[in-house]
């Protein structure tokens, strides 16, 4: 029986919104994820515009082929570059994963 696809939702809270150069660096890092890491089907991300995010400014929604693909993504060096950027900017990360219906 095939493993279900997985949805990976990430919300990020930063102490302050980064400047343009830092935002461009983050965009470059995040945009590199699908081409660099096998198993990513879709990636959508952006800055909150609603004002209803309870302090979380940035959101990412990713779809993975399987739970195994999601597990392999987490330690991947390209993903770890994003994590390092967030850690350097004191990002607080909330992640939520769930299987998608077949």
UniProtKB/TrEMBL annotation:
Signal peptide: none annotated. It holds the Pfam family Dabb. PROSITE patterns: S_R_A_B_BARREL (PS51502). Residues 6-98 form the Stress-response A/B barrel domain. It comes from the Bacteria. PANTHER family: PTHR33178, STRESS-RESPONSE A_B BARREL DOMAIN-CONTAINING PROTEIN (PTHR33178:SF10). Homodimer. This is Stress-response A/B barrel domain-containing protein.
